[in-house]
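Lay summary. Proteins are chains of building blocks that fold into shapes, and those shapes determine what they do. In this project we predict the shape from the chain. Here is one chain we studied, written as its sequence of building blocks.
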Amino acid sequence: MMKVALIRQDDQWPELPQLADAEKMLWQDLTLQPLLDFMAQKDAYLIDIIPRTLCQSLQTETAVYYCQAAVQDALALPDLIQQLYDQVVACQAAAQKVTWGIFTGSVTYQLYSNTQLLQTYLAGITTLLKSPHGSVQSANFKAFWTRLDQTFAPEKMKQMWHVVNALTATDHEYAYPAQLQVGCLGQIGELFYSPPQSKLGDLVSGWTNRYHADTSDFYIAERDENSDQAAARNLGQAAYHLTTVLINTTAELARFFAELKWQLGFLLGAVRLHQSLPSDCPLTYPKIAATTVIQRLQNLTLLLAQGQTAAVIGNDFQPQQQPLTVVTGANQGGKTVFLRSLGQAQIFTQAGLFIPAQAGQLPLYAHVLTHFKREEDQQMTSGKLAEELQRFAGLTTDLRGRNLFLMNESFASTNAHEGALINREILTGLIKGGQTVVAVSHLTDLAALLPPEIQDQTLFLRAQREQSGQRTYRILPGLPEVTSYGIDIFDRYFQDVPGGLILSKKVTPS
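And here is the predicted shape, written in a compact code that computers can read:
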């Protein structure tokens, strides 16, 4: 089997599943669609495979580092990645024209069609071999080119083209051994092709066959349909083995090009995302460790929208082996952006990609699962609280391994006290079940309601607010406060409205 093994040590394109419902929610909750727009650039194939690849989290440290090495090579050689991807796409397009109707018709038709297909793939391999790849640094790419050079060494390619030319020549001769058995049944051997010769060769060959004949010519009368059909059956039987070999060969080459397109497509998406980010954006390739430590983590979606690094606040996150993090604080203080940034960083780390941070180390999780509040819509068949509970129950069905739960204002559709009680039960169950949770909440009672043994395992963070009411979008250690400072937002919109709507300011009676 021909291996690609650029971003995965074991090729896996045919096994790459479609997005599950939980992964579709993840994609929506973490606002990953803008990232896909930059990575795919309206390429329908990339729009399909990039989300599926990102959501197939790598589960070993070795696999993560292996992919990171290929990504670093790709970012250093963006033109090469684009060129290779274009070559693969062109080869597949040419093969598609040949494969139209290839699996129908007689054995001899399939022999001819698969020979044309083999010719197309060999031309594609030749183009790949000519690509300037001397500057690659990763073991991934070096091994890929070594395998390609060895499998299609010049002498081997010469032999392959000799076979193709013999099978596609219009003036070739072919023969097959045949002998009579008991009952006058014929035994047909494998087809043998003779390549076309010069006129002198034909003359010598004809003389040799006449006096030292290993082959015999026979003629079928013009209207002898029975003999014509018998000869066609014999030819198909003789060509069967050769046709089977060709079909298997072209199928393997088709698989190789499909695998190569997927892996190059993912790398091309990484290249395009990198080129779309601000040039001074700090990027790091996270290390895999038992605990999370991230310095100055930024949000990828905001970086792409703002176009400049300084416009996006970076935050640190270091939970000190605490499985539960609760983020509270002022409304519009950056809590949800921070939560999404953590989710994006985890997804990108376990896809073998970079993250927008000064430094980082992260553990590996079986899955990243999200539960964000939803606005009520006409598709809901029950109340908002029931919908939230049903959606969360779906996440925990057949839950296996250690997972990262990202919860944003979950179960806030009921009153504050009941919402805090529901959160307490769910968070306690998740932590006791060995899960990791980062929860954004405005429920100030939640911290006090958590059992003492869970509070001891909890990191409390709070969105910073200055005395003036200004949001800094910094997420810092701090216990929940009794207010989310919603009145600040009210003042922002109504401070110039006459008639006593400035609720946050005390009015002294005259």
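What the prediction tells us: The chain has a mean pLDDT of 85.
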